[in-house]
Amino acid sequence: MDELLPIPDGPLKTGFTTGACATACSKAALQALILQRKVTRITITLPIGSQHEFEMISCVLNQDTVECTTQKDAGDDPDVTHGAIIGAVVKLNESGDIRFLKGKGVGIVTLPGLEIGVGEPAINPVPRQMITNACKKLLADHGLEHKGVDVMIFVQDGEIIAKRTLNERLGIIGGISILGTTGIVTPFSASSYIASIVQGIDVAIANDVSELVINSGARSEKYLTSLFPKLPAFAFIHYGNWIGETLEKIAKSNIKKVNMGIMLGKSVKLAEGILDTHSGKSTWNKEFVYQLAINAGYTGDSLNQILSLNMAGRLTELFTFAADEPFYNALIKACHENCSKLIPNVELVLFLINKDGTYIKYA
Q1: Cβ neighbours of residue 52 closer than 8 Å, sequence gap 6 or more
Q2: Any domain includes 41
Q3: Number of compact structural domains in the chain
Q4: Is 190 inside a domain boundary?
Q5: Which residue, of 123, 187, 238, 252, is most buried by count of CB atoms within 10 Å of its CB?
C-alpha cells in the first residue's frame, strides 16, 4: 500500500463499493435469467437503507446462465478499484441456497483470521448478504422460492489491481476482495483503512504471530524489512495515519512486542500526543518543537530557525540525524512515551526513520 495521498480542497463526490456493484450485477443477471431478456439498469437497496440505480455495461444471455457487468465509480476517493469492470454470472440451482463461486479476478482466502473461511472467495459478509437478499427477493417475486442461485463474481484485471493492495499479505490470493459495509464509498474515509489495519492484525494473531512491525506505509516498511527477516509478511502492518486505532487494537490482542517505524514528519506530531497524523487533520506545531529543543539543551540560532521551517522534514538541516543528537533523543522518547500509554503490556521498540532510510532506535 502506498503512502497516503493528501485530501483535496472542496466538496468531494461519493462513490459505490465493490460490494454494491457486485450486488447490482447479480440482481440484474438473475432478473435477466428469469425474464429471458436483457437488463440495462437495475436498482438495489444499499445497507444504509437508500436505493441506487446502476447501469449495466453488458448483459449476455446464455441458455441457463446470464452475465452482467458494470463499471465501479468510487467518486473522488483514490480507490485502486475505481473504474474497474465488476461482473456476475448467475445460474439457478436446486439446492434452495445462494452459493458463492470464485470468478476470475476475485481472490481466494488462504489464511485464517478473516471473516471469510479459508478456501472461500473473498466476498465479505455484507456484500454476501446484499446479494443473498436481492436474489431471494427476486425468486420470491416470481414464484421461485424453492430455487437457489449460483453466483460467480468476477473483476476484469482483478489480479493486476490486487497487486496494489495488501491482499496477498492477508492471505487473499489471485484477485481483489469484494468489500463494503454501507455500499457507499466516502472519499478519503478513514473507515476502510482502519478496517484493513484490524484485518491485518487479526490475520497475524490467527497465524500465531506475537511480534509485529507497524509503519506508516510502503516507504518506511521498505527501510525496516531487512531488520526483521524472520518475520512473515503478515506481521508487517501499515498504520497510515491512524496510530491510535492501531495501538488500541494491539492492546486488546495477545501481541507481545511491537516494532514501530515512524518518519520524521509524523514523529513531531506523535511526540506532541497527536495520534491521527494526517496533514488534513493536524499540522506540526513549531512552538512545541521549539520548546522540545530548549528542553534538550539547545540555544542560539538553531532555535529561531525552527520557527522558520516550512516542513518538519527539514529539521535535519538544523540537527544532524544521529543517535547521539540530543534533539532526536528527546523527540523519539516523547513518541515512545505517548505510544506506551496505549499498549502498557506490550514491549515497544521505536525506529525514527530519516528520508534516506537511516534510523535511530529507541526502546
Answers
A1: 16, 20, 43, 44, 46, 183
A2: yes
A3: 2
A4: no
A5: 123
Identify the residue whose cell numbers are 497510515. Answer: 240
Contact 329, 322 (CB under 8 A): no
Short-list 300, 352, 294, CA closest to 326:
294
Own/partner long-range contacts of 344-348 (Cβ < 8 Å, ≥24 apart): 344/251, 345/251, 346/250, 346/251, 346/255, 346/256, 346/257, 346/258, 347/256, 347/257, 347/258, 348/257, 348/258, 348/260
> What is the distance between the alpha carbons of residues 226 and 335, in angstroms, rounded to a whole number?
23
User: Which pTM was predicted?
Assistant: 0.82
Q: Which residues contact 104 (CB under 8 A, 6 or more apart)?
A: 154, 155, 158, 159, 175
Segments forming the whole domain that contains residue 178: 15-185
Residue 17: count of CB within 10 angstroms of its CB: 28
The x, y and z cell numbers of residue 115, run together, are 471473516
Distance CA 296, CA 327 (A): 6
Contact by Cβ (8 Å): 354, 316: yes
Can you read off the three cell numbers belonging to residue 58?
453488458
pLDDT in tens, 310-362: 889 899 999 999 999 999 999 999 999 999 999 999 999 999 999 899 999 99
- Domain boundary (156, 185, 214) is at 185
